[in-house]
């Protein structure tokens, strides 16, 4: 069996996850040139090319992909085992990397993260906010937060944040004064709707309403479709059309009167977000501490 340095294998995994030497160097305590040298040593040790390199990008070869798929879980178990042996479970240290939707990063995670980090000063949290559903391990993250309908079947999930949320419709007073106020989902086809498109799948978020077993789906077709909620809300404030969004995101505008509620009796409730991860076995200490914290704080957050 070829002999190689486990650190070199870990460097290869980091390069593969980051998509390049420079990006990987930002995540690890090593320079890009040191990572390149580590991969070269590893290729010599195993007798196979593991990375295809160009001036602009790097990509795993077929052999490299097989190697990374096999060695990544082993490296994770070694790191977790070391945490379990040398770390104090009451005082975890290390970095916790989370992948979360932009809405969660803005409206749900901040108070939870702040309280957790104050309790565990040895932990550093890195949050990657994006709306596309990704493989958290491939992105170099320990865990993610998503809504239940977008979770893979093979992950472990625990509730985080509010357990019930509402899909809220609103519009500027100027828009409703000019166009009138819809009373039923079918009335929306005569109105301008501001839409949201997911950045990853490119799918348009359909507005869905349900009552007495009847489900009505309305595509938010109108003058604006955007992947950023900030632009949608600003357009709604300006009177461009009706917006459908998480209630938390529109609360301040509804309270100030910049937006007014539309079709309140049709607002739909849905389950809150979930913290998900790949395995309970040999979890890194920061992730284990965060999962325990979220579970312990659940009654206070479940509103």
Automatic annotation (TrEMBL):
<dbReference type="InterPro" id="IPR058163">
    <property type="entry name" value="LysR-type_TF_proteobact-type"/>
</dbReference>
<keyword id="KW-0804">Transcription</keyword>
<dbReference type="InterPro" id="IPR036388">
    <property type="entry name" value="WH-like_DNA-bd_sf"/>
</dbReference>
<dbReference type="Pfam" id="PF03466">
    <property type="entry name" value="LysR_substrate"/>
</dbReference>
<dbReference type="InterPro" id="IPR036390">
    <property type="entry name" value="WH_DNA-bd_sf"/>
</dbReference>
<dbReference type="InterPro" id="IPR005119">
    <property type="entry name" value="LysR_subst-bd"/>
</dbReference>
<dbReference type="Pfam" id="PF00126">
    <property type="entry name" value="HTH_1"/>
</dbReference>
<dbReference type="GO" id="GO:0003700">
    <property type="term" value="F:DNA-binding transcription factor activity"/>
</dbReference>
<dbReference type="GO" id="GO:0003677">
    <property type="term" value="F:DNA binding"/>
</dbReference>
<feature type="domain" description="HTH lysR-type">
    <location>
        <begin position="4"/>
        <end position="61"/>
    </location>
</feature>
<dbReference type="InterPro" id="IPR000847">
    <property type="entry name" value="LysR_HTH_N"/>
</dbReference>
<protein>
    <submittedName>
        <fullName>DNA-binding transcriptional LysR family regulator</fullName>
    </submittedName>
</protein>
<keyword id="KW-0238">DNA-binding</keyword>
<keyword id="KW-0805">Transcription regulation</keyword>
<comment type="similarity">
    <text>Belongs to the LysR transcriptional regulatory family.</text>
</comment>
């Amino acid at each position: 069996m070829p002999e190689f340095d486990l650190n070199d294998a870990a460097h290869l995994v980091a390069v593969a996850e980051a998509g390049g030497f420079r990006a990987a160097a930002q995540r690890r305590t090593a320079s890009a040139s040191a990572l390149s040298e580590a991969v070269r040593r590893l290729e010599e040790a195993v007798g196979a090319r593991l990375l295809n390199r160009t001036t602009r990008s790097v990509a795993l070869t077929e052999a490299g992909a097989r190697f990374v798929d096999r060695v990544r879980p082993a490296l994770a178990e070694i790191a977790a085992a070391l945490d379990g042996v040398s770390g104090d479970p009451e005082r975890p240290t290390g970095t916790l990397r989370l992948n979360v939707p932009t809405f969660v990063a803005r409206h749900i995670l901040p108070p939870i993260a702040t309280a957790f980090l104050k309790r565990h000063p040895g932990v550093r949290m890195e949050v990657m906010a994006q709306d596309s559903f990704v493989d958290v391990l491939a992105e170099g993250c320990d865990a993610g937060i998503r809504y239940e309908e977008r979770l893979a079947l093979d992950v472990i999930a625990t509730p985080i944040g509010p357990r019930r949320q509402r899909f809220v419709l609103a519009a500027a007073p100027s828009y409703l004064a000019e166009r009138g106020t819809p009373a039923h989902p079918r009335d929306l086809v005569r109105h301008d709707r501001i839409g949201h498109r997911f950045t990853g799948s490119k799918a348009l978020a359909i507005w869905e309403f349900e009552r007495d077993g009847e489900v009505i789906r309305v595509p938010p077709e109108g003058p604006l479709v955007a992947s950023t909620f900030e632009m949608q809300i600003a357009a709604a404030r300006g009177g461009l059309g009706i917006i459908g969004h998480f209630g938390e995101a529109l609360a301040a505008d509804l309270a100030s009167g910049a937006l007014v509620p539309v079709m309140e009796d049709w607002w739909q409730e849905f389950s809150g977000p979930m913290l998900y991860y790949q395995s309970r076995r040999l979890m890194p200490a920061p992730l284990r501490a965060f999962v325990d914290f979220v579970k312990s704080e659940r009654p206070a957050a479940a509103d």
